[in-house]
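Appendix C reproduces, verbatim, an entry submitted by the partner laboratory led by Prof. M.T., so that reviewers can inspect both the input and the predicted structure.
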Amino acid sequence: MKRRHWILPMILATALAVVSLWGYDQYRQKQQYNIYMENIYEKSFYNLVSYTQSIEGNMSKLMATATPAQYSLILTDIWRQAESAGDSLGQLPISHIALDNTAKFLNQIGDFSYYLARNATKGKPISAEEWRKLEELHNYSADMKSQLLALEQDVSANHISWSEIMQKGGRTLNNQEAPTVDSHFEDIEKTMMDYPSLIYDGPFSESVERREPLGLTDKSVSYEQAQKIAENFIGKDVIASIKKIGEDKGTIPTWNMEVTPKNASRPHIYINISKKGGEVVWMTSSATAPKQNLTVQQATDRASAFLEEKGYKDMTVTYAQHYNGIAIINFAYKQDNVIVYPDLIKVKVSMGDGNIVGFEGTGYLMSHTQRKLDKPSLTEQEAREFVSDRLSIKSARLAVIPTPAKNEVLTYEFKAEFAGEQYLVYINALNGNEENILKILTTNNGVLTI
């Protein structure tokens, strides 16, 4: 009887221990995710500050430059830094504050710089009116830099957690007496409201509206529907549990989820599903493969089969790389035998077991649509005449490429060689303009283009 008396307490104690261990494990996993997101947000913020400082510094140098060759180089740097600053701004968890003016300012200062740099290469000098615009833009960039540096000091002094800001919807700093993150960005927004209008033929001139995703339908998707989409995409048989961890309100608003695999040795998976159309925007995990059992070609075949299985038709492999046992395969859409580079998808494959451990579909969702492709005005042979005589052409095909002005152009893509180096030369199929040149680098990790 005494032995029976102790059975129930022992069962309860065991159950309590199991629940406690499970709770601790859930807490630990949440902490790991918070640290992961905190690192991303912190990096994005400090990159934004750094790029903004560089923009202001280069704008300042530009004011003292007299030679077209020199201001062309500086303007090109400003263009690149503005694009990077815009990307960093878009990654911050400031979802409920309208940052349209700030983003538009970065877009326009970058694109205006590119426009002037290209004019300089064609021998066209900066006009007096354009110099006046540049001076005004320099003043606004200086204000933006000062306000971001002030925010940086507050973040540091008040030990701000960016992931906490995301969870709380961007509320105030820990110290209620200090200025809020909101107020700093609101001040920047107010400053950017009055910057000068830029009338030129770039993509962010006043006549061009903000770009919207082309690859999404208008159908609204609830969280419950998004969860089913995530389960089908990853595979129900490998999922132990799935939970909501947040929402994004950027260019593509998403439901964000964390997936716990049944196999405890596999890392957690994070996946975002678009609220419109119910498409997978991205999926990632921290998987590695110390032992590589697959070749890059086998990983590529696995990625191709995965896309076909998930309904992504007419995708063709462009380039592949691999790091730490993970192959990163780039795919572009193919329409009427023309490669459409803006419609880009990246798939990550474990070279250990062939599992799909990453997916990036943002480029595809932003750009994908059935295009009415122009008929080339030039034949391939005629387009070859616009390629440098120093290059030996190895192959050619038609390709749609994005331009720095965020437009698209039909080109002939010529793969060529010079002095043992490989290049891709893009010749406009309508007028023969040399639109772009990329250098191909073959490394131990795969193929890169610069």
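Confidence is low (pLDDT under 50) at residues 168-179, 205-210. Additional entries are available on request from the coordinating office.
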